Structure prediction request, 528 residues.
Amino acid sequence: MVNVKKGVILTSDPAFRQLLIHMDESRQLGSKFIVRELDETHLFIEKDVIPILEERVESIMEQMNPESNEK
Amino acid sequence: MSEGEENETCLFLSFLQTLEKSARKRLFEKPSCAFFIFRMLPPMSQQIIVQLIWKGNLQPETSENIDWDRWIKLLSSLDIIQPDDESTSKIPYSIDFSFRRSYLFAVMSGSCRISGLKQQILDEKRKQKEVGKKASERWDCILRYLALPTEQNQKSVSATTRHLFSAAKFTSGDANIEITTVGFQFLLLSPVQQMWTYIIEYFKLEIANGHDIVDLLDLLIQIVLCANKGYEPGHEAFVLENDWDERQNEMIAHLRELGVIFIRKTKDGIFFLTPLLSHLATSELSTAGNSIEKTSNGSVIVETNFRLYAYTSSPLQLAILSTFTEMTYRFNDMSVGMLTRESVRRALQVGITAAQIISFLRTNAHPQCLATGGTLNCLPITVADQIRLWEDERKRMDLKDAYMYSTFESDDEYFGVRNFAQQEGILLWANNDQKLVIVTEDGHERVKQWYKANRKS
Prediction:
């Protein structure tokens, strides 16, 4: 029987994908959210984590921004 | 590609697509409307119409390698052409009968004559020399109200415009009116886009109130058609007809407020065309290098070190600039600011796009920048690139709602679903080794139907 799963397909660059996998494994969002690792640039993830995920990604990217580090 | 295709249709035609079929058909019956629609179409679609009218069918030369589908799709979505089973042509389409008749009638008589408005000859004294200035003042008033909806600015726009802006969600709040993100995006558009957006929002409001807009559109088009090349704003006057109904008179009042027509006093019974009317006579797509937009006095100089100087005292301009610039000094007639990552990101976060910022800076470039850098390089390339990079770094991931199908019973089933999804254009991702298919959210229903149909057989 074919299995149907609703979710979100995420497209990104490989480096960023690795970051997401790390976030998934270390359960930084409270739980695992990656349903399936598709290929180098695609992931299939749960839909309900998206708001938290986006917020978290934003803050990680901010930490890595040289300008705000200098201040 | 989807973005490119969207850009192919101008605001007016997209709006036309949303109308009911019967309303479109009624427009086709009026020569002025058919002619105007033709004028707003992209060149390739015009070509198709001309061929269908004069040759009776579409017979593309075999040597030509043109993708007709896109243009045909546009025309059939407007109901100008429809599939014709009897045609033997490779592209079997026929043109709408009333559109064809109206178009032919219009080309034979010329755009001014079909407009049907009565012109009034004026003596030298009554000619309005300053309509251009007055028109831009009117338009500025509206934009200023939107940028800074203070009480003082509120008085300068009519209640209907205020209502229109709140209905279009450009402003929010009842007592304390504030501009919304959508409103800010509107401010960053080019004048032609703004004008059309305003008009279309007005029509949408009329439809929402249950009014029929065919006669309104007709009147608008008649007026716009008078704005031919070489018309002299303020020199020609047209009669305000007595038999226009209430709705039509209200639209005239709107147009007057927008500044596209000028009425000295309503009891004069005449109106003048203003230079702003030419904004409505063109589609926003064909105006990339338009002269009207360039002559508007830009005041912004951006240096390669991201410093920005604005030689203006207009609160409107400064309000717009401050959405994406960190303003540092403010003098009487000039202000200085910096384009920083923070300030641009702030704008991006509320939904303004990099392209909008860049095009705003270009359209408002100081004449001296235009003289040295031309229309493109008046904003330093490095700055434009950086603004785009700041936008891109926020887009590290692309998310799409989807359905994933796994654990197929057989290879046939897997390939069946995959090929079906591919044909329908709903396939997002598939992998033969993992036997996984991912389709768009909307596509799920269609795959379900495919399953139903295939189980029966």
Notes: Chain A has one domain: 8-70. Chain A touches chain B through 28 residues (CB under 8 Å). Residues 51 and 57 of chain A are 10 Å apart (CA to CA).
